[in-house]
Amino acid sequence: MFLLNICFISFLLIIFFSMLLFMVSIYFMLYDLVYFIEYNLIEINSSCIVMIFLFDWMSLIFMSTVLFISSLVILYSNSYMLNDLNLNRFIMLVILFVLSMMLMILSPNLISILLGWDGLGLISYCLVIYYQNVKSFNAGMLTVLSNRIGDIFLLLSISWMMNFGGWNFYFYTEILKSNVYMMMITMMILLASFTKSAQIPFSSWLPAAMAAPTPVSSLVHSSTLVTAGVYLLIRFENLFNSEYFINFFLLFSSLTMFMSGLNANFEFDLKKIIALSTLSQLGLMMSILFLGFKFLAFFHLLMHAFFKALLFMCSGIYIHSLNNFQDIRILGSMFNQMPFTSICFHFSNLSLCGFPFLAGFYSKDLILEMLLMLNYNMFIMMIFFISTFLTVSYTFRLIYFSMLGWFNMISLNFLNDYDLYMNNSMYFMMLMVVFGGSMFSWLMFPYNYFILLPFYLKILPLIIIIFGMIFGFFVYYLNLKMFKLKFYFLNMFFSMMWFLPIIFSYGMIKNIMYLNKEMTLSFNQNWMEFYKSSIILIFLKNFSGILELFLFYFNNILNLFLILFILLMYYLFIV
Protein backbone atom coordinates (compact mmCIF):
# COMPACT_ATOMS: atom_id res chain seq x y z
CA MET A 1 0.00 0.00 0.00
CA PHE A 2 2.90 2.32 0.77
CA LEU A 3 4.31 1.79 -2.75
CA LEU A 4 0.94 2.51 -4.31
CA ASN A 5 0.78 5.73 -2.31
CA ILE A 6 4.21 6.73 -3.65
CA CYS A 7 2.98 6.20 -7.22
CA PHE A 8 -0.26 8.09 -6.68
CA ILE A 9 1.39 11.03 -4.87
CA SER A 10 4.02 11.25 -7.64
CA PHE A 11 1.25 11.23 -10.24
CA LEU A 12 -0.68 14.05 -8.54
CA LEU A 13 2.39 16.25 -8.03
CA ILE A 14 3.71 15.81 -11.57
CA ILE A 15 0.36 16.40 -13.28
CA PHE A 16 -0.16 19.54 -11.15
CA PHE A 17 3.19 20.95 -12.30
CA SER A 18 2.35 19.95 -15.88
CA MET A 19 -0.90 21.94 -15.86
CA LEU A 20 0.82 24.89 -14.20
CA LEU A 21 3.61 24.96 -16.78
CA PHE A 22 1.06 24.71 -19.60
CA MET A 23 -0.79 27.81 -18.37
CA VAL A 24 2.50 29.70 -17.95
CA SER A 25 3.59 28.66 -21.46
CA ILE A 26 0.37 30.13 -22.92
CA TYR A 27 1.12 33.40 -21.10
CA PHE A 28 4.69 33.42 -22.44
CA MET A 29 3.40 32.66 -25.93
CA LEU A 30 0.84 35.48 -25.91
CA TYR A 31 3.34 38.13 -24.80
CA ASP A 32 6.41 36.62 -26.54
CA LEU A 33 8.47 36.51 -23.33
CA VAL A 34 11.93 35.04 -22.79
CA TYR A 35 13.35 34.89 -19.26
CA PHE A 36 16.90 34.04 -18.24
CA ILE A 37 17.31 33.08 -14.58
CA GLU A 38 20.85 33.00 -13.21
CA TYR A 39 21.73 31.38 -9.89
CA ASN A 40 25.22 31.89 -8.51
CA LEU A 41 26.28 28.51 -7.12
CA ILE A 42 29.86 29.24 -5.99
CA GLU A 43 31.85 32.47 -6.01
CA ILE A 44 35.58 32.35 -5.17
CA ASN A 45 37.31 35.73 -5.59
CA SER A 46 36.60 36.67 -9.22
CA SER A 47 35.56 33.16 -10.35
CA CYS A 48 31.82 32.43 -10.48
CA ILE A 49 29.99 29.21 -11.22
CA VAL A 50 26.55 30.25 -12.42
CA MET A 51 23.53 28.06 -13.20
CA ILE A 52 21.41 29.54 -15.99
CA PHE A 53 17.86 28.54 -16.92
CA LEU A 54 16.09 29.61 -20.10
CA PHE A 55 12.32 30.02 -19.90
CA ASP A 56 10.45 30.65 -23.13
CA TRP A 57 7.21 29.25 -24.55
CA MET A 58 9.03 26.40 -26.31
CA SER A 59 10.83 25.07 -23.23
CA LEU A 60 7.76 25.50 -21.03
CA ILE A 61 5.33 23.75 -23.37
CA PHE A 62 7.78 20.87 -23.93
CA MET A 63 8.30 20.52 -20.17
CA SER A 64 4.54 20.48 -19.69
CA THR A 65 4.21 17.69 -22.29
CA VAL A 66 7.00 15.61 -20.73
CA LEU A 67 5.52 15.97 -17.23
CA PHE A 68 1.99 15.14 -18.47
CA ILE A 69 3.16 11.94 -20.18
CA SER A 70 5.43 10.91 -17.29
CA SER A 71 2.60 11.39 -14.75
CA LEU A 72 0.31 9.12 -16.76
CA VAL A 73 3.14 6.58 -17.20
CA ILE A 74 3.63 6.50 -13.39
CA LEU A 75 -0.13 5.98 -12.93
CA TYR A 76 0.00 3.24 -15.57
CA SER A 77 2.98 1.59 -13.81
CA ASN A 78 0.86 1.39 -10.67
CA SER A 79 -0.87 -1.64 -12.18
CA TYR A 80 1.63 -2.79 -14.80
CA MET A 81 4.46 -3.21 -12.27
CA LEU A 82 2.19 -4.21 -9.39
CA ASN A 83 3.88 -7.54 -8.65
CA ASP A 84 7.38 -6.12 -8.97
CA LEU A 85 9.35 -6.28 -5.74
CA ASN A 86 11.32 -3.15 -6.63
CA LEU A 87 8.49 -0.82 -7.65
CA ASN A 88 9.82 2.04 -5.51
CA ARG A 89 13.22 1.80 -7.23
CA PHE A 90 11.49 1.81 -10.62
CA ILE A 91 9.45 4.94 -9.78
CA MET A 92 12.57 6.73 -8.47
CA LEU A 93 14.45 5.90 -11.68
CA VAL A 94 11.58 7.26 -13.78
CA ILE A 95 11.48 10.48 -11.74
CA LEU A 96 15.27 10.91 -12.06
CA PHE A 97 14.93 10.31 -15.79
CA VAL A 98 12.32 13.07 -16.08
CA LEU A 99 14.45 15.46 -13.96
CA SER A 100 17.44 14.87 -16.28
CA MET A 101 15.22 15.74 -19.24
CA MET A 102 14.02 18.90 -17.45
CA LEU A 103 17.63 20.00 -16.91
CA MET A 104 18.39 19.47 -20.58
CA ILE A 105 15.29 21.37 -21.75
CA LEU A 106 15.92 24.42 -19.54
CA SER A 107 19.65 24.82 -20.18
CA PRO A 108 21.12 27.35 -22.61
CA ASN A 109 24.55 26.27 -21.35
CA LEU A 110 26.48 23.34 -22.82
CA ILE A 111 27.83 22.16 -19.47
CA SER A 112 24.42 21.91 -17.79
CA ILE A 113 23.09 20.34 -21.01
CA LEU A 114 25.81 17.70 -20.65
CA LEU A 115 24.66 16.98 -17.08
CA GLY A 116 21.12 16.31 -18.28
CA TRP A 117 22.35 14.50 -21.40
CA ASP A 118 24.59 12.17 -19.37
CA GLY A 119 21.83 11.67 -16.82
CA LEU A 120 19.51 10.49 -19.60
CA GLY A 121 22.14 8.07 -20.90
CA LEU A 122 23.00 6.63 -17.48
CA ILE A 123 19.42 6.23 -16.21
CA SER A 124 18.28 4.78 -19.56
CA TYR A 125 20.97 2.11 -19.09
CA CYS A 126 19.63 1.36 -15.58
CA LEU A 127 16.08 1.08 -16.98
CA VAL A 128 17.02 -1.07 -19.99
CA ILE A 129 18.79 -3.63 -17.75
CA TYR A 130 15.92 -3.51 -15.23
CA TYR A 131 14.87 -7.14 -15.80
CA GLN A 132 18.50 -8.33 -15.44
CA ASN A 133 18.79 -11.08 -18.02
CA VAL A 134 21.30 -11.64 -20.82
CA LYS A 135 19.19 -9.89 -23.46
CA SER A 136 18.71 -6.86 -21.20
CA PHE A 137 22.42 -6.59 -20.42
CA ASN A 138 23.38 -6.79 -24.11
CA ALA A 139 20.76 -4.20 -25.06
CA GLY A 140 21.82 -1.93 -22.19
CA MET A 141 25.47 -2.09 -23.16
CA LEU A 142 24.65 -1.33 -26.81
CA THR A 143 22.45 1.60 -25.70
CA VAL A 144 24.93 3.17 -23.31
CA LEU A 145 27.95 2.78 -25.64
CA SER A 146 26.07 4.26 -28.61
CA ASN A 147 25.01 7.23 -26.48
CA ARG A 148 28.56 7.58 -25.18
CA ILE A 149 29.68 8.50 -28.71
CA GLY A 150 27.33 11.48 -28.58
CA ASP A 151 28.63 12.41 -25.13
CA ILE A 152 32.17 12.52 -26.54
CA PHE A 153 31.11 14.92 -29.30
CA LEU A 154 29.32 17.08 -26.74
CA LEU A 155 32.47 17.18 -24.58
CA LEU A 156 34.53 18.18 -27.62
CA SER A 157 32.07 20.98 -28.42
CA ILE A 158 32.40 22.19 -24.80
CA SER A 159 36.19 22.41 -25.23
CA TRP A 160 35.78 24.30 -28.52
CA MET A 161 33.39 26.76 -26.87
CA MET A 162 36.34 27.89 -24.73
CA ASN A 163 37.28 30.07 -27.72
CA PHE A 164 34.34 32.33 -26.88
CA GLY A 165 34.99 32.65 -23.15
CA GLY A 166 31.77 30.95 -22.05
CA TRP A 167 29.45 28.03 -22.70
CA ASN A 168 26.14 29.86 -23.13
CA PHE A 169 25.62 28.97 -26.79
CA TYR A 170 22.24 30.75 -26.89
CA PHE A 171 23.99 34.12 -26.97
CA TYR A 172 26.09 33.23 -30.02
CA THR A 173 23.56 31.68 -32.39
CA GLU A 174 22.90 34.92 -34.31
CA ILE A 175 26.24 36.75 -34.33
CA LEU A 176 28.66 33.86 -35.02
CA LYS A 177 27.01 32.08 -37.94
CA SER A 178 30.06 32.32 -40.23
CA ASN A 179 32.69 31.67 -37.55
CA VAL A 180 34.91 28.64 -38.26
CA TYR A 181 34.99 27.53 -34.61
CA MET A 182 31.21 27.77 -34.36
CA MET A 183 30.90 25.68 -37.53
CA MET A 184 33.00 22.95 -35.90
CA ILE A 185 30.87 23.12 -32.73
CA THR A 186 27.71 22.85 -34.83
CA MET A 187 29.08 19.78 -36.63
CA MET A 188 29.81 18.09 -33.29
CA ILE A 189 26.34 18.96 -31.93
CA LEU A 190 24.80 17.46 -35.09
CA LEU A 191 26.74 14.22 -34.62
CA ALA A 192 25.82 14.09 -30.91
CA SER A 193 22.14 14.55 -31.78
CA PHE A 194 22.37 11.80 -34.41
CA THR A 195 23.56 9.31 -31.78
CA LYS A 196 20.89 10.27 -29.23
CA SER A 197 18.08 10.23 -31.82
CA ALA A 198 19.39 6.97 -33.38
CA GLN A 199 19.82 8.17 -36.96
CA ILE A 200 21.88 6.19 -39.48
CA PRO A 201 24.52 4.82 -38.75
CA PHE A 202 23.64 4.74 -35.00
CA SER A 203 20.17 3.21 -35.43
CA SER A 204 20.82 -0.27 -34.04
CA TRP A 205 20.42 0.65 -30.35
CA LEU A 206 16.82 1.87 -30.56
CA PRO A 207 15.06 -1.48 -31.25
CA ALA A 208 17.46 -3.15 -28.78
CA ALA A 209 16.30 -0.78 -26.02
CA MET A 210 12.91 -2.53 -26.13
CA ALA A 211 14.26 -4.83 -23.41
CA ALA A 212 13.13 -2.20 -20.89
CA PRO A 213 9.70 -2.45 -19.20
CA THR A 214 6.85 -1.17 -21.39
CA PRO A 215 6.07 1.93 -19.24
CA VAL A 216 9.71 2.96 -19.69
CA SER A 217 9.43 2.43 -23.44
CA SER A 218 6.30 4.59 -23.42
CA LEU A 219 8.21 7.42 -21.77
CA VAL A 220 11.55 7.01 -23.57
CA HIS A 221 10.18 6.69 -27.10
CA SER A 222 7.64 9.46 -26.83
CA SER A 223 9.10 12.52 -25.16
CA THR A 224 12.42 12.03 -23.35
CA LEU A 225 15.54 10.18 -24.47
CA VAL A 226 15.20 9.95 -28.24
CA THR A 227 13.69 13.43 -28.60
CA ALA A 228 16.58 15.06 -26.70
CA GLY A 229 18.68 15.17 -29.89
CA VAL A 230 15.86 16.75 -31.91
CA TYR A 231 15.21 19.37 -29.21
CA LEU A 232 18.92 20.27 -29.01
CA LEU A 233 19.02 20.75 -32.79
CA ILE A 234 15.92 22.96 -32.63
CA ARG A 235 17.87 25.21 -30.25
CA PHE A 236 20.90 25.21 -32.60
CA GLU A 237 18.82 25.65 -35.75
CA ASN A 238 20.07 29.18 -36.51
CA LEU A 239 23.66 27.92 -36.81
CA PHE A 240 23.24 25.17 -39.40
CA ASN A 241 20.26 26.20 -41.54
CA SER A 242 22.47 27.96 -44.09
CA GLU A 243 25.49 25.62 -44.11
CA TYR A 244 26.45 23.65 -47.21
CA PHE A 245 27.09 20.36 -45.32
CA ILE A 246 23.50 20.17 -44.05
CA ASN A 247 22.42 18.25 -47.18
CA PHE A 248 24.48 15.24 -46.06
CA PHE A 249 22.66 15.16 -42.74
CA LEU A 250 19.34 15.59 -44.56
CA LEU A 251 20.19 12.54 -46.69
CA PHE A 252 20.99 10.37 -43.65
CA SER A 253 17.88 11.41 -41.72
CA SER A 254 15.59 10.79 -44.71
CA LEU A 255 17.24 7.39 -45.28
CA THR A 256 16.59 6.57 -41.58
CA MET A 257 12.93 7.39 -42.11
CA PHE A 258 12.77 5.17 -45.20
CA MET A 259 14.77 2.26 -43.71
CA SER A 260 12.77 2.02 -40.50
CA GLY A 261 9.44 2.15 -42.36
CA LEU A 262 10.60 -0.63 -44.68
CA ASN A 263 11.89 -2.82 -41.84
CA ALA A 264 8.70 -2.48 -39.79
CA ASN A 265 6.78 -4.19 -42.63
CA PHE A 266 8.92 -7.32 -42.09
CA GLU A 267 8.90 -7.39 -38.28
CA PHE A 268 6.69 -9.57 -36.04
CA ASP A 269 7.69 -8.30 -32.60
CA LEU A 270 5.01 -5.85 -31.39
CA LYS A 271 7.34 -3.57 -29.43
CA LYS A 272 9.98 -3.56 -32.17
CA ILE A 273 7.41 -2.46 -34.76
CA ILE A 274 6.49 0.51 -32.55
CA ALA A 275 10.20 1.23 -31.92
CA LEU A 276 10.84 1.29 -35.67
CA SER A 277 7.89 3.64 -36.10
CA THR A 278 9.56 5.93 -33.51
CA LEU A 279 12.74 5.79 -35.58
CA SER A 280 10.76 6.70 -38.71
CA GLN A 281 9.14 9.70 -37.01
CA LEU A 282 12.51 10.87 -35.65
CA GLY A 283 13.86 10.76 -39.19
CA LEU A 284 10.87 12.87 -40.30
CA MET A 285 11.49 15.45 -37.55
CA MET A 286 15.19 15.67 -38.37
CA SER A 287 14.52 15.96 -42.11
CA ILE A 288 11.96 18.77 -41.81
CA LEU A 289 14.31 20.52 -39.37
CA PHE A 290 17.16 20.38 -41.91
CA LEU A 291 14.78 21.79 -44.51
CA GLY A 292 14.44 24.88 -42.32
CA PHE A 293 11.10 24.48 -40.48
CA LYS A 294 11.98 24.28 -36.80
CA PHE A 295 8.48 25.13 -35.54
CA LEU A 296 6.97 22.38 -37.69
CA ALA A 297 9.54 19.92 -36.33
CA PHE A 298 8.72 21.00 -32.76
CA PHE A 299 4.96 20.71 -33.45
CA HIS A 300 5.38 17.18 -34.77
CA LEU A 301 7.61 16.37 -31.78
CA LEU A 302 4.73 17.22 -29.42
CA MET A 303 2.09 15.38 -31.45
CA HIS A 304 4.30 12.32 -31.78
CA ALA A 305 4.83 12.28 -28.01
CA PHE A 306 1.09 11.91 -27.37
CA PHE A 307 0.18 9.20 -29.83
CA LYS A 308 3.38 7.19 -29.34
CA ALA A 309 2.94 7.12 -25.54
CA LEU A 310 -0.64 5.87 -26.02
CA LEU A 311 0.52 3.27 -28.55
CA PHE A 312 3.05 1.84 -26.11
CA MET A 313 0.50 1.82 -23.28
CA CYS A 314 -1.95 -0.21 -25.39
CA SER A 315 0.76 -2.62 -26.54
CA GLY A 316 1.82 -3.01 -22.89
CA ILE A 317 -1.69 -4.13 -21.95
CA TYR A 318 -1.70 -6.59 -24.87
CA ILE A 319 1.66 -8.03 -23.80
CA HIS A 320 0.61 -8.09 -20.13
CA SER A 321 -2.59 -9.98 -20.96
CA LEU A 322 -0.85 -12.40 -23.35
CA ASN A 323 1.48 -13.66 -20.60
CA ASN A 324 4.42 -11.58 -21.93
CA PHE A 325 4.24 -12.78 -25.54
CA GLN A 326 5.08 -10.09 -28.09
CA ASP A 327 4.55 -11.87 -31.43
CA ILE A 328 1.75 -10.17 -33.41
CA ARG A 329 0.91 -13.46 -35.15
CA ILE A 330 -0.79 -14.76 -32.00
CA LEU A 331 -3.11 -11.73 -31.91
CA GLY A 332 -6.53 -11.70 -33.52
CA SER A 333 -10.09 -10.54 -32.74
CA MET A 334 -8.73 -8.50 -29.83
CA PHE A 335 -11.65 -6.08 -30.10
CA ASN A 336 -14.10 -8.68 -28.81
CA GLN A 337 -12.27 -9.18 -25.51
CA MET A 338 -10.43 -5.88 -24.95
CA PRO A 339 -12.64 -3.20 -26.53
CA PHE A 340 -11.39 -0.06 -24.78
CA THR A 341 -7.70 -0.93 -25.28
CA SER A 342 -8.40 -1.74 -28.94
CA ILE A 343 -10.14 1.62 -29.48
CA CYS A 344 -7.17 3.49 -27.97
CA PHE A 345 -4.77 1.33 -30.00
CA HIS A 346 -6.59 2.14 -33.25
CA PHE A 347 -6.83 5.85 -32.52
CA SER A 348 -3.09 6.08 -31.83
CA ASN A 349 -2.31 4.03 -34.96
CA LEU A 350 -4.53 6.21 -37.13
CA SER A 351 -2.94 9.32 -35.66
CA LEU A 352 0.48 7.88 -36.56
CA CYS A 353 -0.70 7.46 -40.15
CA GLY A 354 -1.90 11.05 -40.34
CA PHE A 355 -5.61 10.17 -40.50
CA PRO A 356 -7.69 13.37 -40.90
CA PHE A 357 -8.41 15.43 -37.80
CA LEU A 358 -6.42 13.37 -35.32
CA ALA A 359 -3.25 14.76 -33.67
CA GLY A 360 -0.81 13.34 -36.21
CA PHE A 361 -2.77 14.74 -39.15
CA TYR A 362 -2.22 18.38 -38.18
CA SER A 363 1.56 18.00 -38.16
CA LYS A 364 2.19 15.38 -40.87
CA ASP A 365 -0.18 16.88 -43.43
CA LEU A 366 1.32 20.33 -42.89
CA ILE A 367 4.84 18.90 -43.28
CA LEU A 368 3.98 17.13 -46.54
CA GLU A 369 2.23 20.19 -47.99
CA MET A 370 5.13 22.49 -47.06
CA LEU A 371 7.46 19.99 -48.72
CA LEU A 372 5.40 20.12 -51.91
CA MET A 373 5.72 23.91 -51.92
CA LEU A 374 9.52 23.84 -51.56
CA ASN A 375 11.84 23.95 -54.51
CA TYR A 376 13.57 20.70 -53.57
CA ASN A 377 14.75 17.82 -55.74
CA MET A 378 12.64 14.82 -56.65
CA PHE A 379 14.64 12.37 -54.50
CA ILE A 380 13.74 14.10 -51.21
CA MET A 381 10.08 14.40 -52.21
CA MET A 382 9.88 10.75 -53.27
CA ILE A 383 11.56 9.45 -50.11
CA PHE A 384 9.20 11.51 -47.92
CA PHE A 385 6.09 10.20 -49.62
CA ILE A 386 7.35 6.60 -49.88
CA SER A 387 8.17 6.69 -46.15
CA THR A 388 4.66 7.97 -45.39
CA PHE A 389 3.26 5.16 -47.56
CA LEU A 390 5.33 2.58 -45.65
CA THR A 391 4.19 4.06 -42.32
CA VAL A 392 0.55 3.55 -43.26
CA SER A 393 1.39 0.07 -44.57
CA TYR A 394 3.00 -1.32 -41.40
CA THR A 395 0.40 0.40 -39.21
CA PHE A 396 -2.53 -1.21 -41.01
CA ARG A 397 -0.66 -4.52 -41.16
CA LEU A 398 -0.52 -4.35 -37.36
CA ILE A 399 -4.22 -3.49 -37.19
CA TYR A 400 -5.10 -6.42 -39.49
CA PHE A 401 -3.03 -8.83 -37.39
CA SER A 402 -4.69 -7.68 -34.15
CA MET A 403 -8.28 -7.43 -35.42
CA LEU A 404 -8.85 -9.88 -38.29
CA GLY A 405 -8.88 -13.66 -37.93
CA TRP A 406 -9.09 -15.71 -34.77
CA PHE A 407 -7.17 -15.38 -31.53
CA ASN A 408 -4.18 -17.68 -32.04
CA MET A 409 -3.18 -18.39 -28.45
CA ILE A 410 -4.78 -20.80 -25.96
CA SER A 411 -8.58 -20.95 -25.86
CA LEU A 412 -8.76 -20.62 -22.09
CA ASN A 413 -7.51 -17.09 -21.49
CA PHE A 414 -8.07 -14.20 -19.15
CA LEU A 415 -8.00 -11.27 -21.57
CA ASN A 416 -9.66 -8.17 -20.16
CA ASP A 417 -9.05 -4.46 -19.79
CA TYR A 418 -10.86 -3.72 -16.54
CA ASP A 419 -7.87 -2.20 -14.76
CA LEU A 420 -8.81 1.27 -13.46
CA TYR A 421 -5.32 2.81 -13.33
CA MET A 422 -4.35 1.68 -16.83
CA ASN A 423 -7.69 2.72 -18.33
CA ASN A 424 -7.57 6.18 -16.76
CA SER A 425 -4.04 6.83 -18.00
CA MET A 426 -5.00 5.72 -21.52
CA TYR A 427 -8.20 7.76 -21.41
CA PHE A 428 -6.41 11.05 -20.66
CA MET A 429 -3.78 10.30 -23.27
CA MET A 430 -6.46 9.54 -25.86
CA LEU A 431 -8.06 12.93 -25.21
CA MET A 432 -4.77 14.54 -26.26
CA VAL A 433 -4.53 12.28 -29.32
CA VAL A 434 -8.01 13.34 -30.46
CA PHE A 435 -8.06 17.02 -29.46
CA GLY A 436 -4.35 17.88 -28.95
CA GLY A 437 -3.57 18.44 -32.63
CA SER A 438 -6.15 21.15 -33.21
CA MET A 439 -5.46 22.78 -29.82
CA PHE A 440 -1.69 23.00 -30.27
CA SER A 441 -1.98 24.10 -33.90
CA TRP A 442 -4.17 27.04 -32.83
CA LEU A 443 -1.71 27.92 -30.08
CA MET A 444 1.54 27.58 -32.03
CA PHE A 445 0.38 28.91 -35.40
CA PRO A 446 -2.01 31.80 -34.74
CA TYR A 447 -1.41 33.02 -38.30
CA ASN A 448 -2.32 30.52 -40.99
CA TYR A 449 0.24 29.26 -43.47
CA PHE A 450 -0.72 30.20 -47.01
CA ILE A 451 -0.34 26.93 -48.92
CA LEU A 452 -1.28 27.11 -52.57
CA LEU A 453 -1.32 23.71 -54.29
CA PRO A 454 -3.19 22.19 -57.23
CA PHE A 455 -5.99 19.77 -56.37
CA TYR A 456 -4.07 16.55 -57.18
CA LEU A 457 -1.20 17.57 -54.86
CA LYS A 458 -3.65 18.66 -52.17
CA ILE A 459 -5.23 15.21 -51.98
CA LEU A 460 -1.93 13.34 -52.49
CA PRO A 461 -1.44 12.61 -48.72
CA LEU A 462 -4.96 11.15 -48.57
CA ILE A 463 -4.25 8.98 -51.64
CA ILE A 464 -1.00 7.81 -49.99
CA ILE A 465 -2.99 6.76 -46.88
CA ILE A 466 -5.52 4.78 -48.96
CA PHE A 467 -2.85 2.96 -50.99
CA GLY A 468 -0.88 2.27 -47.79
CA MET A 469 -3.97 0.61 -46.26
CA ILE A 470 -4.34 -1.62 -49.33
CA PHE A 471 -0.63 -2.53 -49.39
CA GLY A 472 -0.70 -3.29 -45.64
CA PHE A 473 -3.57 -5.76 -46.21
CA PHE A 474 -1.59 -7.31 -49.08
CA VAL A 475 1.46 -7.83 -46.84
CA TYR A 476 -0.75 -9.22 -44.06
CA TYR A 477 -2.55 -11.61 -46.40
CA LEU A 478 0.62 -13.05 -47.89
CA ASN A 479 2.22 -13.15 -44.43
CA LEU A 480 5.58 -13.04 -46.19
CA LYS A 481 5.72 -16.84 -46.65
CA MET A 482 6.34 -16.69 -50.39
CA PHE A 483 8.79 -13.87 -49.91
CA LYS A 484 10.81 -15.85 -47.36
CA LEU A 485 11.11 -18.88 -49.62
CA LYS A 486 12.21 -17.03 -52.75
CA PHE A 487 14.19 -14.06 -51.44
CA TYR A 488 15.67 -15.18 -48.13
CA PHE A 489 18.69 -12.86 -48.26
CA LEU A 490 16.55 -9.86 -49.25
CA ASN A 491 14.15 -10.59 -46.39
CA MET A 492 17.09 -10.78 -43.96
CA PHE A 493 18.45 -7.50 -45.36
CA PHE A 494 15.15 -5.69 -44.80
CA SER A 495 14.27 -7.20 -41.43
CA MET A 496 17.74 -6.58 -39.91
CA MET A 497 17.86 -2.83 -40.59
CA TRP A 498 20.12 -3.16 -43.62
CA PHE A 499 22.60 -5.17 -41.46
CA LEU A 500 23.35 -2.07 -39.35
CA PRO A 501 23.35 -4.05 -36.06
CA ILE A 502 25.87 -6.50 -37.53
CA ILE A 503 28.11 -3.81 -39.03
CA PHE A 504 28.06 -1.24 -36.24
CA SER A 505 27.65 -3.39 -33.13
CA TYR A 506 28.51 -7.08 -33.49
CA GLY A 507 30.99 -6.48 -36.30
CA MET A 508 32.84 -3.70 -34.54
CA ILE A 509 32.92 -5.53 -31.21
CA LYS A 510 34.15 -8.75 -32.82
CA ASN A 511 36.96 -7.00 -34.72
CA ILE A 512 38.02 -4.98 -31.68
CA MET A 513 38.08 -8.11 -29.50
CA TYR A 514 40.10 -9.96 -32.15
CA LEU A 515 42.57 -7.05 -32.33
CA ASN A 516 42.76 -7.00 -28.56
CA LYS A 517 43.57 -10.73 -28.55
CA GLU A 518 46.34 -10.30 -31.13
CA MET A 519 47.83 -7.35 -29.25
CA THR A 520 47.70 -9.32 -26.01
CA LEU A 521 49.55 -12.21 -27.63
CA SER A 522 52.15 -10.05 -29.34
CA PHE A 523 52.76 -7.47 -26.60
CA ASN A 524 52.10 -9.25 -23.31
CA GLN A 525 53.48 -12.63 -24.29
CA ASN A 526 56.25 -11.73 -26.78
CA TRP A 527 57.69 -8.25 -26.44
CA MET A 528 56.86 -7.78 -22.79
CA GLU A 529 58.20 -11.23 -22.02
CA PHE A 530 61.47 -10.31 -23.77
CA TYR A 531 61.74 -7.01 -21.91
CA LYS A 532 60.55 -8.29 -18.55
CA SER A 533 62.48 -11.56 -18.43
CA SER A 534 65.53 -11.55 -20.73
CA ILE A 535 66.80 -7.97 -20.37
CA ILE A 536 66.04 -7.78 -16.66
CA LEU A 537 67.86 -11.13 -16.19
CA ILE A 538 70.98 -9.83 -18.00
CA PHE A 539 70.88 -6.63 -15.96
CA LEU A 540 70.61 -8.57 -12.71
CA LYS A 541 73.53 -10.85 -13.70
CA ASN A 542 75.78 -7.86 -14.45
CA PHE A 543 74.65 -6.09 -11.32
CA SER A 544 75.36 -9.18 -9.23
CA GLY A 545 78.94 -9.30 -10.66
CA ILE A 546 79.55 -5.71 -9.49
CA LEU A 547 77.99 -6.62 -6.16
CA GLU A 548 80.37 -9.60 -5.77
CA LEU A 549 83.37 -7.31 -6.33
CA PHE A 550 82.14 -4.96 -3.58
CA LEU A 551 81.51 -7.93 -1.31
CA PHE A 552 85.10 -9.22 -1.90
CA TYR A 553 86.57 -5.92 -0.73
CA PHE A 554 84.08 -5.70 2.10
CA ASN A 555 85.14 -9.16 3.39
CA ASN A 556 88.83 -8.11 3.28
CA ILE A 557 88.26 -4.74 4.92
CA LEU A 558 91.27 -5.05 7.34
CA ASN A 559 93.68 -5.52 4.44
CA LEU A 560 92.10 -2.48 2.76
CA PHE A 561 92.57 -0.32 5.85
CA LEU A 562 96.22 -1.44 6.21
CA ILE A 563 97.02 -0.61 2.59
CA LEU A 564 95.42 2.83 2.96
CA PHE A 565 97.41 3.49 6.18
CA ILE A 566 100.70 2.56 4.48
CA LEU A 567 99.93 4.84 1.52
CA LEU A 568 99.09 7.71 3.86
CA MET A 569 102.36 7.29 5.80
CA TYR A 570 104.35 7.16 2.57
CA TYR A 571 102.71 10.37 1.38
CA LEU A 572 103.41 12.19 4.66
CA PHE A 573 107.05 11.02 4.72
CA ILE A 574 107.66 12.28 1.14
CA VAL A 575 105.99 15.64 1.82
UniProtKB/TrEMBL annotation:
Transmembrane segment boundaries: 7-30, 50-75, 87-105, 152-172, 178-195, 246-266, 273-291, 297-319, 340-362, 374-391, 427-447, 459-477, 489-509, 557-574
EC numbers: 7.1.1.2
UniProt entry keywords in alphabetical sequence: Electron transport, Membrane, Mitochondrion, Mitochondrion inner membrane, NAD, Respiratory chain, Translocase, Transmembrane, Transmembrane helix, Transport, Ubiquinone
Broad EC category: translocase
Family matches, as Pfam families: NADH5_C, Proton_antipo_M
Localization annotation: Mitochondrion inner membrane
InterPro entries: NADH_DH_su5_C, ND/Mrp_TM, NU5C-like
Residue ranges constituting the NADH dehydrogenase subunit 5 C-terminal domain according to the UniProt record: 394-574
Reaction catalyzed: a ubiquinone + NADH + 5 H(+)(in) = a ubiquinol + NAD(+) + 4 H(+)(out)
Domain NADH:quinone oxidoreductase/Mrp antiporter transmembrane, first and last residues per copy: 107-391
GO molecular function, one term: NADH dehydrogenase (ubiquinone) activity
Membrane topology: Multi-pass membrane protein
GO cellular-component term (any): mitochondrial inner membrane
BP GO terms, sorted: ATP synthesis coupled electron transport; electron transport coupled proton transport
Entry function: Core subunit of the mitochondrial membrane respiratory chain NADH dehydrogenase (Complex I) that is believed to belong to the minimal assembly required for catalysis. Complex I functions in the transfer of electrons from NADH to the respiratory chain. The immediate electron acceptor for the enzyme is believed to be ubiquinone.
Protein name in the entry: NADH-ubiquinone oxidoreductase chain 5
Protein's organism: Nesodiprion zhejiangensis
